């Protein structure tokens, strides 16, 4: 510690021969030097010039009296330092520690004493520089003149227990006052603490330990108190401020070695002790309100403390699961479920990116949590995701650009990925896709194909093969229609209906319940012509007409002029009746058209109770009742020439929703049966538990053990397998 030893060089003249010294030279010279040291210690001017004194020291050294000279110098310094202690001894030691003014005066006095000591030792050393550089340097046991001064100051001033305690009490009091927000003399603190550091172990042994204990108590109490009083964001803000202040304290006046234990102490008492409490009290709120900067601060502070990130992770996951569950399980919120899932996913992604520094652990746990909550309610999310995609791919959708649509589909795929029963999605997707294609309501072939390739990439080619088959059928039908048009031109009586047929491969498309309706003779004749044409090309195929998704364009004349209607086949059959008369009852229409009861009610409702009322219902009302009469509306007006009334075909009926779901379950039963038989055929004999775990591995949808048990029983009844005679938990394959 000789940072203040900035002595200056004086010229050294070398002797060639040693001059003869007068007898009492040594004594007189020492007298002179003693006087000079005394003058330095009393801060009065020295009567000799420094060059002369310097020379004198050199002379004495060359005459082998170095040892005596060092001892004498040490004695003079020691006497002076010993005398210093008296001014502190006289000091009243009875005061209380909080008598801060008195304490401050004491610190200033100690500091002055120390500063004087350093200044004096620098001057003394410069006079005795020759001694320091020769004799002292050659004797490794001797401390340098500067170090000797430090040793004396330590032994006689600072090692005095009363002085030391009072100094350290005073320093701690100043630091405490500064921590309470008062302004204190920081340069005084810096000077005193570097004094303690210079005096070797005093800082470590006497100051640092007490300082850290006090810091610990202060922050333990402060943490307890503020956790009660403050909201989480304010509390974390305060912790941050405290960490900054303590860091600054280290830079300004503490020794650098104190930094680690000091910061660790603040972190432990203000954060480590309260990790759970902070998160329980405030995390949900920060996440609900999307408080980005507070969340960033939470993450940064928690990352400083051992176990902090781990506990933040747990709470993060809980939050996602709880919040996500509220989106998914409430049937009243079904219409917004998918949009809310997308918004929630965007929100957590943003928090991970901005606040959690894209931390992998937070990303992975978020995915797991999404998967957990989205499958808490089986089937419905999958169905609604399919319908959401349908709404985006339908004509007339408001998503402005292809890019936007593409972005939405990508986001949907991320949510889709979390779903366990993807077969439900496929069933509804297929049903809606069929309508989009057959009723001509698809917004864009590119978007449709893009979605297909995403599904293929996610679920494999088997998943999308039927959907791709549907597109192929549509393409092939176009080619068939070109040939059919040519065929029709060669007919003797082409008729005045323009027929377009889509030929659907049974296995690819949803199953439609055949509905026998009464077409008019011209339509029937056309169907027969087409059948003859088609089977002429493809003998051995069987054609079955599907009426539900058929549609037509009708020309109509009203008082106001001509209109065209885009209508479903059922609407067509109803409207064509009004060529024969102006008014029909519900029962008459039912007899004539053969349309099934509930389907007919929907159809009449769309014609007489919707926006475009081509028919008038008597009596008025929004539901079609038995006995209602329908009258042709000759006064029909509409701003458009071509009017679409067949949106009804795109609407999903309750029956449709139920039957689509039923079919998925039916299909699952077959898949379970097939998997059991496959496994048993390979293994020949297998225990119940092993069979079940093997099934869990193979099946792509969630199943309950009870369901598997039922399928096993059913297969035993049907003689595909049998129970072991001695062990009912063991099964054998029956070839």
List the helices and strands and how they pair.
Layout: H1 25-41, H2 50-62, H3 66-89, H4 100-127, H5 129-138, H6 145-158, H7 161-179, H8 186-198, H9 202-229, H10 232-252, H11 259-271, H12 275-288, H13 292-304, H14 308-329, H15 337-354, H16 360-374, H17 380-393, H18 402-417, H19 422-438, H20 445-459, H21 461-489, H22 521-537, E1 551-558, E2 561-568, H23 569-577, E3 583-585, H24 586-593, H25 597-608, E4 615-618, E5 629-632, E6 642-644, H26 654-683, E7 685-687, H27 688-698, H28 705-717, E8 721-723, E9 730-733
Keywords:
735 residues, mainly alpha, 5 helical Cullin repeat like, 6 domains, 28 helices, biological rhythms, host-virus interaction
Description:
The chain is mainly α and 735 residues long. It folds into six domains: 24-200, Cullin Repeats (5 helical Cullin repeat like, Up-down Bundle); 201-271, 5 helical Cullin repeat like, CATH 1.20.1310; 288-471, 5 helical Cullin repeat like, CATH 1.20.1310.10; 472-537, no CATH class; 550-652, Ribosomal Protein S5, domain 2, CATH 3.30.230; 655-733, Winged helix-like DNA-binding domain superfamily/Winged helix DNA-binding domain (Arc Repressor Mutant, subunit A, Orthogonal Bundle), CATH 1.10.10. The protein is 64% helix and 5% strand. The protein has 28 helices and nine strands. It has a three-stranded mixed sheet. Strands 3-5-4 form a three-stranded antiparallel sheet. A three-stranded antiparallel sheet has the order 7-9-8. A hairpin with a 2-residue loop joins β1 and β2. α4 (100-127) packs across α8, α7 runs parallel beside α9 (202-229) and α19 (422-438) packs parallel to α21 (461-489). The protein is elongated and about 160 Å long.
């Amino acid at each position: 510690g000789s940072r203040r030893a900035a002595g200056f060089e004086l010229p050294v003249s070398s002797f060639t021969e040693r001059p003869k010294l007068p007898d009492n030279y040594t004594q007189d010279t020492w007298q002179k030097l003693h006087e000079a040291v005394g003058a330095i210690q009393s801060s009065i001017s020295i009567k000799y010039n420094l060059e002369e004194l310097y020379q004198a020291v050199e002379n004495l050294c060359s005459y082998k009296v170095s040892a005596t000279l060092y001892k004498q110098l040490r004695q003079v310094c020691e006497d002076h330092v010993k005398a210093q202690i008296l001014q502190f001894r006289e000091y009243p030691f009875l005061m209380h520690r909080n008598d801060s003014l008195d304490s401050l005066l004491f610190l200033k006095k100690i500091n002055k004493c120390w500063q004087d000591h350093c200044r004096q030792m620098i001057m003394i050393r410069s006079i005795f520089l020759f001694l320091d550089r020769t004799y002292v340097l050659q004797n490794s046991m001797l401390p340098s003149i500067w170090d000797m001064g430090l040793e004396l100051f330590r032994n006689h001033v600072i090692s005095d227990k009363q002085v030391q305690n009072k100094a350290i009490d005073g320093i701690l009091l100043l630091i405490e006052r500064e921590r309470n927000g008062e302004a204190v003399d920081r340069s005084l603190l810096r000077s005193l603490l570097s004094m303690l550091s210079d005096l070797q172990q005093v800082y470590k042994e006497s100051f640092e330990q007490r300082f850290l204990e006090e810091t610990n108590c202060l922050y333990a109490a402060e943490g307890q108190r503020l956790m009660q009083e403050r909201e989480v964001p304010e509390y974390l803000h305060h912790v941050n401020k405290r960490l900054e202040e303590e860091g600054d304290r280290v830079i300004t006046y503490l020794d650098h070695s104190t930094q680690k234990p000091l910061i660790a102490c603040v972190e432990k008492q203000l954060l480590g002790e309260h990790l759970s409490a902070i998160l329980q009290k405030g995390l949900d709120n920060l996440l609900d309100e999307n408080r980005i900067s507070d969340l960033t601060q939470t993450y940064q502070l928690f990352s400083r403390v051992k176990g902090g990130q781990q506990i933040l992770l747990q709470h993060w996951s809980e939050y996602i699961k709880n919040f996500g569950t509220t989106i998914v399980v409430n049937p009243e919120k079904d219409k917004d479920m998918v949009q809310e899932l997308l918004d929630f996913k965007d929100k957590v992604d943003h928090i991970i990116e901005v606040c959690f520094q894209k931390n992998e652990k937070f990303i992975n746990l978020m995915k797991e949590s999404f998967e957990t909550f989205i499958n808490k309610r089986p089937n419905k999310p999958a169905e609604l995701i399919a319908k959401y995609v349908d709404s985006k791919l339908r004509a007339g959708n408001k998503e402005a650009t292809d890019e936007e649509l593409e972005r939405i589909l990508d986001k949907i795929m991320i949510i889709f990925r979390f779903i366990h029963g993807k077969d439900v999605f496929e069933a509804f997707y297929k049903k809606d896709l069929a309508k989009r294609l057959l009723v001509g309501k698809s917004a864009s072939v590119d978007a449709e194909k893009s979605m297909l390739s995403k599904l293929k990439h996610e679920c494999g080619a088997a998943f999308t093969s039927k959907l791709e088959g549907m597109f192929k059928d549509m393409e092939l039908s176009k080619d068939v229609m070109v040939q059919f048009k040519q065929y029709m031109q060669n007919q003797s009586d082409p008729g005045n209906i323009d027929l377009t047929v889509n030929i659907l491969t049974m296995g690819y498309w949803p199953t439609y319940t055949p509905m026998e309706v009464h077409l008019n003779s011209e339509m029937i004749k056309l169907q027969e012509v087409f059948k003859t044409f088609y089977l002429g090309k493809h003998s051995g195929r069987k054609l079955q007409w599907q009426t539900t998704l058929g549609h037509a364009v009708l020309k109509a004349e009203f008082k106001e002029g001509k209109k065209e209607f885009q209508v479903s086949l059922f609407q067509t059959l109803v409207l064509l009746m009004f060529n024969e008369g102006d008014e029909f009852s519900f029962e008459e229409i039912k007899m004539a058209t053969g349309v099934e009861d509930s389907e007919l009610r929907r159809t009449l409702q769309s014609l007489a109770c919707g926006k475009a009322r081509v028919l008038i219902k008597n009596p008025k009302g929004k539901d079609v009742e038995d006995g209602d009469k329908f009258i042709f509306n000759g006064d029909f007006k509409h701003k458009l020439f071509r009017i679409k009334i067949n949106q009804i075909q795109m609407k999903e009926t309750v029956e449709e929703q139920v039957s689509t779901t039923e079919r998925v379950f039916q299909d699952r039963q077959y898949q379970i049966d097939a998997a059991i038989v496959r496994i048993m055929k390979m293994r020949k004999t297998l225990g119940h538990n092993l069979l079940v775990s093997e099934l869990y591995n193979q099946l792509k949808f969630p199943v309950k053990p009870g369901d598997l048990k039922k399928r096993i029983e059913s297969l035993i009844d049907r003689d595909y397998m049998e129970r072991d005679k001695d062990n009912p938990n063991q099964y054998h394959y029956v070839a």
